[in-house]
Specification:
single chain, alpha+beta, ATPase_OSCP/dsu, ATP synthase subunit delta, transport, Peroxidase, domain 1, 2 domains, 4-stranded mixed beta sheet, proton-transporting ATP synthase activity, rotational mechanism, Glutaredoxin, 184 residues
Length: 184
């Protein structure tokens, strides 16, 4: 069976279950945390797929990986279902599918913001401005890149605005070179 079909089916079921209980926002936050952990700790997936480990051990490991004091009952039950049905190898895809379905359902746009230094105030301000312009919710994934010297680069809905000092210096350099060629 197709990985995408299975993943989306389980993700839709989780979203429907969480919505019926009014906890889809909490489950969304928890799945985002788990997705982040699965990217930074690839051994987690291999451990979860290990057939030697018991379902209880895998379940506890997944709950711990979410990184919150108490995981929602909906996500716990989802983990149990996935483990009992022996669908662990699809879990990472299910989590990403849930995140995508949730964002689609809530009309959330995802953008990327690159700054020279961490700037939570800038992130919040740009999210608010972008949300107002798009009439929706905007979440910015941030990245720090000191090579841009200052300013920021924002990418959202296929558009890119490079307001970095590095880009401004490049433009000034190009203008300077072009002007000097005309003079000579």
């Amino acid at each position: 069976m197709n990985i995408g079909v299975i993943s989306v089916r389980y993700a839709r079921a989780l979203l429907a279950f969480a919505k019926s209980r009014g906890t889809e926002d909490r489950v969304y936050d928890e799945t985002k945390r788990l997705a982040r952990v699965s990217v930074t700790v690839p051994q987690l997936r291999h451990t979860i797929e290990n057939p030697v480990l018991s379902i209880a051990t895998k379940h506890k490991l997944l709950c711990d990986a979410v990184g919150v004091k108490e995981v929602s009952e909906e996500l716990k039950r989802f983990f149990r279902l996935v483990l009992e049905e022996k669908r662990e190898k699809f879990l990472q895809f299910m989590i990403w599918s849930y995140i995508d379905l949730y964002r689609e359902d809530k009309h959330i746009l995802i953008g990327k913001l690159t700054t020279a230094v961490e700037s939570p105030k800038l992130v919040k301000k740009l999210e608010e401005l972008a949300s107002a312009r798009t009439n929706g919710v905007v979440e910015l994934e941030t990245k720090v890149d000191p090579s841009i010297i200052g300013g920021y680069i924002i990418e959202l809905a296929g558009f890119r605005l490079d307001a970095s000092v590095q880009n401004q210096l490049k433009r000034i350099r190009r203008q300077f070179i072009a002007r000097n060629r005309r003079i000579v």
